[in-house]
Amino acid sequence: MTGATVTVTEITKRWGETLAVAGVSLSAGEGRFVTLLGPSGCGKSTTLRVIAGLETVDGGSVRIGDRDVTRLPPSRRALSMVFQSYALFPHMTVAENLLFGLKVRKVAPVERRRRLTRVAELLSIDGLLSRKPSQLSGGQQQRVALGRALIAEAPVCLMDEPLSNLDAQLRGEMRREIRALQERLGITMIYVTHDQAEAMSMSDHVVLMNRGAIEQQGRPGDLYNRPASLFTARFIGSPAMDILDLSDPDLSRFVFGDPEKGAGLLLGLRPETVSPAPGHGLPAVVEASEYLGADTLLSCRAAGGQRLSARLPGAATMAPGTGVNLTWPEEATHLFNAADGRRRDDRLSDCPTAFTRARLSQIC
Amino acid sequence: MSKRLNALYGWLLILPAVSLLAAFTHLPAVMTLLASVHSTPRGTRPPHFVGLDNYRDMMADPIFWQSLWNNLIYALATIPVSVALALTMALLVNRSFPGRSLARLAFFTPTVLPMIAVANIWLFFYTPDYGLLDRLVGFLGMAHHNWLGERGTALWALIAVAIWKESGFFMIFYLAALQQIPATLREAAALEGAGPWTCFRRVTLPLLMPTTLFVLINALINAFRMVDHVVVMTRGGPDNATSLLLFHIFEVGFRFWDSAYAATLTVVLVTILSLVAALKFHFLDSRTHYR
Ligand SMILES: Nc1ncnc2c1ncn2[C@@H]1O[C@H](COP(=O)(O)OP(=O)(O)OP(=O)(O)O)[C@@H](O)[C@H]1O
Ligand SMILES: [Mg+2]
């Protein structure tokens, strides 16, 4: 089993007045793991269902391998799908559920048995084959749904939030299993989730959607390190990036060495890049400290009342009201337009170097 | 003391229900059973015990056998056709298309009409020469018929009425059941390569099994219970060709005033219906609960 390339070009889908998907283009190469990520209602499921052929498009095209499948019914697109609700047939046993597609496609009985054994072993559901779905736990049902998608040996597999019904521990386990299976079998995966951590940990390529359009796509690291917009900056990363208003003269003076230069700009800082710098950082007051085990999250309020946090290793708790000076490396500075949220790397050159900043902060 | 008082309260509370049930269900049932082993009171002669004489008479009554036979044909023809029609209509109006509510209403209307009204409508359809059916048949160049007056067609004419009346009712059950089946199951089947027919046969139909069984058994009971259209349209004629079991009981009891024999026939009918009900509970409780 090897993957096939899926190419989606400029697809749009309307539901009456609402534009659920507005000109989405993306491509998933052979054997790649591509994730559609975004908040609820942004059009992830609709995009996936369009690829599956379960919804018709109002514009654009879908190609799988070298075929244009835009007008083909789901059964002729050579793909398998795991539904959020699993969609197991309640009147069939696990084995019948797994074999349903093979029987429909008239695969020979010998071959059917071979694949059943293999998939059942792969997912450790050998012991459950004669049970009905209602007699399985959520995690087991999930495995069966996964098995039904894998047994088809389709080159492309689609998954719509398959892990959202599972508890945290099982979810973590299944994430690793799905990823490992996908890599081992070499299938092309298009995976929908609204959980950014899931997307970051599993994917080769993340497509972040917002209100039916693609906000940004790239490798997980690209989205994390260079968010192209305020939306991406806020959505990716946990705890979320802090956004500070640079029209505040004090903050502007600290960042640019000039109280006017920051007008119309926003500053984004990831808590994990911010650290205390006794004597020469941005002056702030600790509001709360949250001990998370491996590290501690300090929530602070800078001059001008703006919030920012720092993630410190270990149990570095500080009493509320303590004054701290905070700083961050130059490459951790993210600048955005306040008006349209676009990233402004060009303005980074206006920032003084760390050395001069340290001096400046001592002056002010 | 308080325990006894409790028990007394309990009995007092269920007394109204129990007395109603006893007075209108249990007592008549027992009386019917008793009446069936006594003779019919005539004038000054009080009923006397006759043992199984009434049952022996019944076995020798050709009209009883004819009615039972008619009823069997009636059941075997109405049930499969009306259930299949109900399912087809439900599948048709379960999809979305403009005017769906109107189509549902149209299919359901016959059910809402009283049987007497339905019978009158069809009486017009079947009228020889002037009726809708004869006009249609005449238009196609075939001979006219007295649909309700000929032995060969009368029972089938009644069967058509029953199917017309019942299908819409059963459709409602199927429609409700279809809406319970998650759309993702059909989508999953489609992705697995199943066409509409395979999807219907392997997924939809099995999931409708409990409903089908429920509908089948209700149809069976109805087949022995409906009598209004016989009374209005044929009065059992011609030559008892359309006499159903319940109609025969009606005739014996209220035309010939032979109450003992009517009681005997009633016992037989109730026995048949009880068997059907037992079947219903057996199946509904055991086989179809796969969830
Ligand atoms: N069948 C439908 N009819 C009308 N509107 C729909 C339909 N399906 C989706 N929508 C609308 O399209 C938009 C996108 O829906 P979609 O299901 O793709 O969101 P999603 O990103 O999958 O969200 P979630 O994370 O909550 O599943 C939403 O505004 C939704 O209300
Ligand atoms: Mg969704």
What layout of secondary structure does this protein have?
The complex is a heterodimer of chains A (364) and B (291).
Chain A: E1 6-15, E2 18-28, E3 33-37, H1 44-52, E4 59-64, E5 67-68, E6 79-82, H2 94-104, H3 109-122, H4 138-151, E7 156-160, H5 168-185, E8 188-193, H6 196-202, E9 205-210, E10 213-218, H7 220-225, H8 230-235, E11 242-245, H9 249-256, E12 265-269, E13 275-276, E14 282-291, E15 295-302, E16 307-313, E17 323-327, E18 334-337, H10 354-363
Parallel strand pairs in A: 3-8, 3-9, 6-7, 7-8
Antiparallel strand pairs in A: 1-2, 1-4, 4-5, 9-10, 11-12, 12-18, 13-17, 14-15, 14-17, 15-16
Chain B: H1 2-35, H2 53-59, H3 62-94, H4 100-112, H5 115-126, H6 132-139, H7 151-180, H8 183-191, H9 196-207, H10 209-225, H11 228-233, H12 245-254, H13 259-286
Helix pairs in contact in B: 2-13, 3-4, 3-7, 3-10, 4-7, 7-10, 8-9, 10-13, 12-13
Keywords (chain A): ATP-binding, Cell membrane, Membrane, Nucleotide-binding, Translocase, Transport
Domain ABC transporter (chain A): 6-236
GO molecular function, one term (chain A): ATP hydrolysis activity
Q: Which features does this protein show?
A:
heterodimer, A: 364 residues, alpha+beta, Rossmann fold, OB fold (Dihydrolipoamide Acetyltransferase, E2P), six-stranded mixed beta sheet, five-stranded antiparallel beta sheet, 18 strands, elongated, B: 291 residues, mainly alpha, MetI-like fold, 13 helices, binds adenosine-5'-triphosphate, ABC_transporter_permease (chain B), cell membrane (chain B), transmembrane helix (chain B), MetI-like_sf (chain B), transport (chain B)
Shape of chain B: flat
Structural class of chain A: alpha+beta
Count of discrete structural domains of chain B: 2
Terminal Cα separation of chain B, in Å?
48 Å
| Poorly predicted runs of 5 or more residues of chain B | none
Overall 3D shape of chain A: elongated
CATH class term of the largest domain in chain B: Mainly Alpha
